[in-house]
Amino acid sequence: MPDSIGANVIPCLLLAAGRGERMRPLTDETPKPLLSIKGKSLLAWHLEALNTAGIQDVVINHAWLGQKIEDALGNGHQFHLNITYSPEKTALETAGGIRQALPHLNTEDYFLVINGDVFCPHFPIEQLLNTLTVLRNTQKPILAHLIMVPNPAHHPEGDFDLLDARVSENLSGQGEKLTFSGIGLYHRDLFKNLAIGKSAKLAPLLRDAMRENQVSGEKYTGPWHDVGTPQRLQELNAAHE
User: Fold this and answer.
1) CATH assignment of 9-238?
2) pLDDT per residue over 155-203, tens digit each?
3) 144 contact partners, CB below 8 Å, separation of at least 6
């Protein structure tokens, strides 16, 4: 484990409950996060990176074909990790899935969340974990720290504005409009008003926190891909490293 992050090791939740409608027919028999790039599933790429970063405890939520995810990954020992699962009878949307997984995460404050369907093979998780020291020492609690990326061709309008590490829905043109990567640090209090087992979207919670200036972020310019269509998956497999 890297010495620099020893005090900042937190659990990670990998979001893997989506149906992957846009990836059909590939996802008719295979959960989207188990689709492979360069011979490894999307989830395996994440798990190997988490192990390298020193993270030990991982929770994976699932719904569609969730048993196949458990069968493929087991308890995580093949990745030198401890994996537990947060099954959902029907997908609870992002915030609902996070709320249901909180007891498994067993954290007093922050935890890492990564979308299971993004491909970001060189993302510096260790560097992100060092941000925890700053987050924990802010006078007003930061409820989310989002990794933002340049807007991809399929999402040119972006999601939120970033200015001086502050993320907001609208900074009147002062910030840079970027896309949320699906990678972020969250404080458990962001989800405290949600009921367990109820479907809930993440964006409204983030927007409420943004209005209270409780969402920070940073821009990441390394390789990042939202593996949202069969064509994108094919292109990634055909690309040379």
Assistant:
1) 3.90.550.10
2) 899 999 999 999 998 766 678 999 999 999 999 999 999 999 999 999 9
3) 167, 184, 185, 186, 187, 190, 206, 209, 214, 215, 216
